[in-house]
Amino acid sequence: MSSHAAPAAAGSPPSRYFVPDPSVWPFILTAGLFTVIVGVWGFLEHKQFPIALPIYAGAAVSIYIIFRWLRGVSLESEHGKYNLQVDGTYRMAMAWFIFSEVMFFGAFFGALWYAREMSIPWLSGEGTKMATHLALWPGFENIWPNNGPMELNGHFETVGAWGLPFVNTLLLLTSGVTITMAHHALKENHRLSTILWMWATVGLGVAFLICQAYEYHHAYEGLNLKLASGIYGSTFFMLTGFHGMHVTLGTIMLIIITCRLMAGHFKPDSHFGFEGVAWYWHFVDVVWIGLFVFVYVL
Predict the structure, then answer these.
(1) Which structural domain, as residue segments, surrounds residue 198?
(2) Is the sign of the CA dihedral 56, 60, 66, 67 positive or negative?
(3) H or E, element range at 137
(4) 88-95: which pairs have CB atoms within 8 A and are 24 or more residues apart?
(5) Using one digit for the tens of pLDDT, what is the confidence trace for 62-108?
(6) 160: which residues sit within 8 A by CB, 6+ positions away?
(7) Burial of 295 (0-12, 13-18, 19+ CB in 10 A)
(8) Torsion of CA 149, 150, 154, 155, to 10 degrees
(9) Is 264 left (phi over 0), alpha (psi -120 to 50) or beta?
(10) Same domain for 116 and 36?
């Protein structure tokens, strides 16, 4: 990627705001992701392997474009094209992105609270909702977790909080400590320590995902807890599944940042790429604590 800004002297930040030239990457990435969506839709509709080919093709194109795009941004940063104003823009953008993610999870937490504290009591005839109770489901009871009237989707059990969910909580809390140690090591210019702490964080993220995959398998096969298990199953898998997707994305980001550190990128006084990923990872940690309390414990 090139810039419209005037070239800066070696070792000094640019005097003008960096504006990259127009790029085709967003359009190609959009096409790749759209192909993935079409492939998933076709596969779910027809359950045939050839229909799944667009998924792999679209995913391959998307991954390639993402890495090419990230490589371009990394080179721009390492070549000194970003000044303090650009750094501030990146910080503001990352802050707004995390805020949007907070609102995203807030909506699902709100749905969980509404179902548990309002809808279920109303349908059971609590307060002034007796007419609704008698007209719709006379036998409905105010029980949580709930699988609907007469357990239409079969009996299920919940995942115990003090098994794998607690282990996953310890893993993520520990990863928050390791990435903080990596940040301090980077600011003190201890690159080897930074890299080791970062790989430890990556390992903890991967361990979390492995534990969650095992938990899902146990929920489906051993507890009969599925996405179709009433409002509880829907909210359980929606919240934990989206969080798992965020952990996956965060782990990929950690791997990229660690590889950049191994390539000599980032300086003790200039490393927002590292900081942005650290912000995101701490956000993932905090969301999981909320999930652990409100989904598993309560």
Answers:
(1) 82-297
(2) positive
(3) none
(4) 90/272, 90/276, 91/272, 91/276, 94/276, 94/279, 94/280, 95/279
(5) 888 888 888 887 777 777 777 777 778 888 999 999 999 999 999 99
(6) 296
(7) buried
(8) 100
(9) left
(10) no
38: its two tokens:
């079409």
Residue 139 has pLDDT above 80, yes or no: no
Pair 145, 220 in one domain: yes
Higher pLDDT among residues 6 and 79, named by residue: 79
Q: Which amino acid is at 142?
A: N
**Domain boundary pick from 81, 103, 121:** 81
What pLDDT, on a 0 to 100 scale, did the predictor assign at position 7? 43
What pLDDT does 152 receive? 65
How many whole angstroms separate alpha carbon 80 and alpha carbon 23? 20
CA terminus-to-terminus distance, the chain: 51
Residue 2 confidence (pLDDT) above 60:
no
> What's the average model confidence in pLDDT over 36-50?
73
Whole-angstrom CA distances from 281 to 61, 252, 275 are 26, 11, 10
